[in-house]
Structures are given as structure tokens and as C-alpha cells.
């Protein structure tokens, strides 16, 4: 793991941008993208840049179950606003949160990932070490699946909704095996609330109880952290 400590999200976004730029220069075609507050600055830099993703594919990690892409709280909507409107990709995949046949929705998403192997996967991290929406206890062998969100995740994400009761309790998430199949992984984390998860991810045992710890087994991972998120690292 390559760990890069930055002063703040602005510096982190610049380094993240350089990694995306270099990937494009090295003919990366498929970008795995993440939502949450962590990548917002990076998306701002990307959408205002002259990078061209019109021949690239993007595949997002996850989507809330029950929210359609035109719902402002959906991850599809978030991506459209933060990136795709200004920086269109040839095709952008986000799991379908409203397909009634979820077994089919998950199967189709796996087929998409199989067809478009991910060159660069962007990740944030949950307070409990989740990546995508792969909560503690998720199998490291998992592919796309329906997830019951943990109360702590619902609470953490409630800030994006009007009331906590509005947060969906389930999501569709790309699995951990698919995340691990990406050629290169870039994980970003900012703030004190991520320090514990970052420390366990890097120095703790590799265990399904800490989903992000599996990244220790990947041979090309870059971690961008600010001082607060890095303050429990020895
Ligand atoms: N599914 C997303 C994750 O992909 C994201 O990494 C995490 C952290 O969010 P934030 O970046 O807002 O701290 O939140 C959500 O649960």
C-alpha cells in the first residue's frame, strides 16, 4: 500500500486527479467510481479539467434500494450532478435501485463488471470500515448483492436526507471480490472520524469484520489521507 498524507481535501483532490490523468494516459478504459462526501473535491477538479472520458466507461459501487436515478438522494443523481453532466463518459453504470427483480439486477451488474474489467477503482471508507456498501461481515468473495445497511451507516448517511427515517435501509453494492479485481485502487479518507477505520485497514488483521482490511492483499493500492484520518497510524 502506498500511503500519501495530505494537508487537506484540496491537496488530496489534486493528487487524485493526477492518478486519474495518469490512468487515462496509460490507456485505462474503465473507472470504478464512488459516492459520499469524500470524493466531492476530486470530482470538482475532474469536471473542471480538460480530461476526456468520452471513450471511457464508469461503473459505480452502489445505489440505495428504492431510489430511482431522478431522486436527488440517489447515488445516480449525485454522480450526474458531481461529474457526468459536465464530464460525460461513453457509458456510466450505476446499480439499478428500483428494479423489482433484485436478483436479476445484481446478476446484470456482475455481467457489466465482467465485461468491463475495472482499471482504476476509487473508494471512500465508512466509519466501520465498509467499502462500497459492503458492511462488516460481508464475504471477501462477494459479488454484487443486496445489503442491509447497519444502523451506524444509516445514521452516518442521514445528513444527506431530510429525516433519518428517509434513509433507505437497503442498498445494492458491488461485492468485495469485484472491488479487488480492479487493477489499481485509490482510497481516500479525511477527518478524525475515519482514523480508527484507516488504522485497522492498514495495520489490523485481514478480517471480514473490517471489510477494507482486504486491501492489504491487493498489489496496487494508493491511500490518500489527511492528518486527522492518519492520526492513529503508527
Ligand atoms: N456507500 C458510501 C461509501 O461508498 C462511502 O465511502 C461512505 C463514506 O462516505 P463519506 O465519504 O461521506 O464519508 O459512505 C457511503 O456509505
UniProtKB/TrEMBL annotation:
InterPro entries the UniProt entry points to: Glc/Gal-6P_isomerase (IPR006148), Glucosamine6P_isomerase (IPR004547), Glucosamine6P_isomerase_CS (IPR018321), NagB/RpiA_transferase-like (IPR037171)
Biological-process GO terms, alphabetical: carbohydrate metabolic process; glucosamine catabolic process; N-acetylglucosamine catabolic process; N-acetylneuraminate catabolic process
Keyword Hydrolase assigned: yes
Keywords on record: Carbohydrate metabolism, Hydrolase
Keyword Glycoprotein: no
A Pfam family of this chain: Glucosamine_iso
Glucosamine/galactosamine-6-phosphate isomerase domain: residues covered: 26-221
Functional pathway: Amino-sugar metabolism; N-acetylneuraminate degradation; D-fructose 6-phosphate from N-acetylneuraminate: step 5/5
Catalysed reactions listed for this entry: alpha-D-glucosamine 6-phosphate + H2O = beta-D-fructose 6-phosphate + NH4(+)
E.C. designation(s): 3.5.99.6
GO CC terms of this entry: cytoplasm
Active site residues according to the UniProt entry: 62, 128, 130, 135
CDD domains, A to Z: GlcN6P_deaminase
GO MF term list: glucosamine-6-phosphate deaminase activity; identical protein binding
PANTHER family: GLUCOSAMINE-6-PHOSPHATE ISOMERASE (PTHR11280:SF5)
Protein family membership: Belongs to the glucosamine/galactosamine-6-phosphate isomerase family. NagB subfamily.
Primary role: Catalyzes the reversible isomerization-deamination of glucosamine 6-phosphate (GlcN6P) to form fructose 6-phosphate (Fru6P) and ammonium ion.
Record-given protein name: Glucosamine-6-phosphate deaminase
Source species of the chain: Leuconostoc fallax
Lineage: Bacteria, Bacillati, Bacillota, Bacilli, Lactobacillales
Amino acid at each position: 500500500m502506498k500511503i500519501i498524507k495530505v494537508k487537506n481535501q484540496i491537496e488530496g483532490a489534486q493528487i487524485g486527479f493526477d492518478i486519474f490523468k495518469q490512468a487515462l494516459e496509460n490507456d485505462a478504459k474503465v473507472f470504478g467510481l464512488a459516492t459520499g462526501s469524500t470524493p466531492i473535491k476530486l470530482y470538482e477538479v475532474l469536471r473542471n479539467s480538460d480530461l476526456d472520458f468520452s471513450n471511457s466507461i464508469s461503473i459505480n459501487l452502489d445505489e440505495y434500494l428504492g431510489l430511482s436515478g431522478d431522486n436527488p438522494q440517489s447515488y445516480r443523481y449525485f454522480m450526474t450532478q458531481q461529474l457526468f453532466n459536465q464530464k460525460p463518459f461513453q457509458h456510466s453504470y450505476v446499480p439499478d435501485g428500483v428494479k423489482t427483480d433484485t436478483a436479476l439486477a445484481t446478476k446484470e451488474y456482475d455481467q457489466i463488471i465482467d465485461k468491463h474489467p475495472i482499471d482504476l477503482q476509487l473508494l471512500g471508507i465508512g466509519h466501520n470500515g465498509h467499502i462500497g456498501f459492503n458492511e462488516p461481515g460481508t464475504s471477501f468473495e462477494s459479488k454484487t448483492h443486496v445489503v442491509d445497511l447497519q444502523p451506524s451507516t444509516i445514521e452516518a448517511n442521514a445528513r444527506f436526507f431530510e429525516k433519518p427515517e428517509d434513509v433507505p435501509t437497503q442498498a445494492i453494492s458491488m461485492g468485495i471480490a469485484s472491488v479487488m479485481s480492479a487493477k489499481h485502487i485509490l482510497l481516500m479518507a479525511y477527518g478524525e472520524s475515519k482514523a480508527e477505520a484507516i488504522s485497522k485497514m492498514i495495520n489490523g488483521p485481514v478480517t471480514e469484520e473490517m471489510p477494507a482490511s482486504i486491501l492489504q492483499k491487493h498489489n496496487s493500492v494508493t491511500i490518500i489521507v489527511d492528518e486527522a484520518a492518519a492520526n492513529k497510524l503508527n
